[in-house]
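Predict the holo structure. Ligand: zinc ion.
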Amino acid sequence: MEVAGCGVCHTDVGFAYDGVPTRAPFPLTLGHEISGRVTAAGAGAGQWEGCNVIVPAVIPCGECSPCRAGQPTICRKQFMPGNDGDGGFATHVRVPARGLCPVPEKLPPGISLDLLSVVADAVTTPFEAIRRSGLGSDDVAVFVGVGGVGGFGVQIAAALGASVIAIDVDPARLKLAAQHGASLALDASSTNEKELKSAVRSFVKQSGRTGIGLKIFETSGTPAGQIVAFGLLDYGGYLAVVGFTPKKVEVRLSNLMAFDATARGNWGCPPEQYPAALALVLEGKVVLEPFVERHSLDEAPAVLEAVARHEIKSRVILVPDHKGLAVEEIRSCTTTI
Ligand SMILES: [Zn+2]
Ligand SMILES: [Zn+2]
């Protein structure tokens, strides 16, 4: 398929710079947040030719026992582009047809196919974490880290009717979160842990939400964020670990039993949940544009380094230049959307 855009994830930075091993050996093209157009299909997948699609970041095999038991994200035969094989930091990529999420040919104003690449991980991973938490309109949701992933999580939680608190160390991110669904924005760089806790507690009281226990989403993928998130657990609380860091943290794990609380992670999102997550974007309930910035694929090495140094705060989308490449025969999409 022809890549329209591919988002840059901190997992890519981990693979490229932090010694996190990819499952397929280097040399490997990274990138697992892919949107694009199917330009050629193998046997049995012909209906996808000419279709615009989002490629799930984790594509399960569909046949093993976790897949059959409805837990496809722990499939051991899964394919993750840019980890199990070449990924989307390229003009073209070959991916399995299984699990592709169809994208309508005609998109709402302001939404383009390259922009939708971030649905593949930055939107769907918090979407799945929120779905598993059972978050509803009676709940207060807390997002620790409101960059790309957390910024989308805030909007998804708000779309479900929950009252949302955003915590970050970056004032610009907090401002954006407050404009897009967060009712309270707390700056963790100028507030100590005790003050954060009491601000959260008084907000919950004032919110009038009767849901038991906070629903906390750790979306920063930093040790400091993980400590803050764990420290917010209360009676019946729920902690979703969404962000990734290879670093360790020290927490009092027994708080889980003392508070009868739950901590849970999720490795991506099952492909069957992608259309519901995409619908939130197409309906305008989750906006992407203010949270992303586009760069040419040609700038990939410098951009990845800048992301690694935390110099770029937005979710980066690498966009390949298709000018000058052979024009593929345009076929029309026959898959029903
Ligand atoms: Zn990722
Ligand atoms: Zn499987």
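The first helix runs from residue 10 to 17. The first strand starts at residue 2 and ends at 8.
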